[in-house]
Specification:
Number of strands: 16
Strand order of the largest sheet: 9-16-15-14-12-13
Radius of gyration: 27 Å
Structural class: alpha+beta
Strand content: 15-25%
Distance between the termini: 46 Å
Number of domains: 3
Helix content: 10-25%
Number of helices: 9
Largest sheet: 6 strands, mixed
Length: 421
């Protein structure tokens, strides 16, 4: 039976992707897991894999087309299998074309004299809830357009972005109330001086800006900082790496990611997200790791982090980070995080705070592990210390719980043998 391949959703805020290139052409054999196409999102170029074996029966969109998430892009099935019609956005066959008008042989009615009437406005494709793509809903909300007054031209009468843009061109922009007015963006002076350089922001940089402005202006952040004793972890890491090849050595961050996952088991409120007035406590612990990429950063996700051994976590992070920097991430690399971490320790950073990655409840900012003077037994002696700061959504949790999480995390970082057993 033919299978429909859809535009994947990479992260909760992705509304559409651009199909850059077909890797498999119509008529070519494809196996489950083979790369079917490359798509470009705000974040990266992603390879879309087939989830079915067979032959590529149809390409439903052309290269260079922007496609809303979850819309069909191709059909894979058995060789020679007939596909009557391309599926619509919901994965069902598209409705048949409307019946033709009455034949030309029908008698022509006598002309009727009447006053001129204004041209009728086409009715929406269906009654009930308005069908619109996520991107169209966002643009309509931002621009104050009533979706009920827009006629959809997408599959099955679905409203897409171009319909909103057409509606805006056809009517003057509506007044925007102060409560819904967009946050002003203040620009620098337009008069440039010798030596000034203007650089066009990348799609990734724009996406980062949109998400973090939304996070910082809509989520009530609060912060808790804790300092950790790192001598035992540094010694254990040295012992482990002494028996590993260079490409498999464990980083301090690998220990922290595993320690965070184990601690989250005790604090389900921090392994959560907000949905309306409900808090969703996630059953899986999927820790996101912020990775620096050209022009910005991206969060790769270690699935079921609490259940994986340290070496597996290390290997997965290395592989996903390499794909992210090459712009070749897989959908599963960046989707599904339930808690995020950001580590600037390699840059000799004493302390910093991170902005929450929505819709998650919290993010941990990790600074450098340093050998510093510490007081022990009334004496000043050298010791390894590291500061970390958790940023938490105050709608989901409170300061006491965040402080308890940071204390519980110390049990794993300061007694790292717990991480291995």
């Amino acid at each position: 039976m033919a299978e429909t391949i859809k535009m994947p959703k990479l992260g909760f805020d992705m509304a559409e992707g651009t199909l850059v290139r077909w890797v498999k052409n119509v008529g070519e054999t494809i196996n489950k897991g083979d790369v079917l196409a490359e798509i470009e999102t705000d974040k990266a170029t992603v390879e879309v894999e087939s989830h079915a074996d067979g032959v590529v029966l149809q390409h439903l969109v052309d290269a260079g087309t922007s496609v809303p998430v979850n819309n069909p892009i191709a059909i894979v099935g058995a060789e020679g299998e007939k596909v009557d019609s391309a599926p619509a956005a919901g994965g069902q066959p598209a409705p048949a074309a409307p019946a033709a008008a009455a034949s030309s042989s029908a008698p022509t009615p006598a002309p009727v004299t009447q006053t001129a009437a204004p041209a009728a406005t086409p009715a929406p494709a269906e009654t009930g809830p308005v069908k619109a793509s996520p991107l169209a809903r966002k643009v309509a909300r931002d621009r104050g357009v009533n979706l009920g007054s827009v006629v959809g031209t997408g599959p099955g009468g679905r409203i897409v972005r171009r319909d909103i843009e057409s509606a805006l061109k056809a009517s003057p922009a509506p007044a925007v109330s102060p409560a819904s007015a967009p946050i002003p963006v203040y620009e620098t002076r337009t008069t440039q001086q010798p030596g000034d350089e203007t650089i066009q922001t990348t799609k990734l940089r724009q996406a980062i800006g949109r998400r973090l402005v939304e996070s910082k202006t809509t989520i009530p952040h609060f912060y808790v900082t804790h300092e950790y004793k790192m001598e035992a972890l540094m010694d254990l890491r040295k012992q482990i790496n002494g028996s590993l090849p260079d490409n498999e050595k464990i980083s301090v961050n690998d220990f922290i990611v595993k320690a965070v996952a184990l601690t989250l088991r005790q604090f389900p409120n921090l392994n959560a997200s907000l949905s309306g007035t409900n808090i969703i406590r996630h059953g899986a612990v999927n820790v996101g790791v912020a990775v620096t990429v050209p022009g910005g950063l991206m969060t790769v996700v270690v699935k079921d982090t609490d259940q994986k051994p340290l070496r597996q976590i290390s290997g997965e992070v290395k592989a996903m980070a390499a794909r992210a920097r090459d712009g070749k991430v897989k959908p599963e690399d960046v989707d599904g995080s339930t808690f995020s971490t950001s580590n600037l320790g390699m840059y000799d950073v004493d302390e910093f705070i991170a902005i929450i990655n929505p819709p998650e409840a919290a993010i941990l900012a990790i600074s450098s592990a340093r050998e510093v003077p510490v007081v022990s037994g009334g004496q000043v002696v050298p010791g390894w210390r590291m500061k970390a700061t958790i940023s938490v959504d105050h709608r989901i949790s409170d300061g006491a719980e965040a402080a308890q999480f940071m204390q519980a995390l110390a049990k794993y970082l300061e007694e790292p043998i717990r991480i291995l057993v």
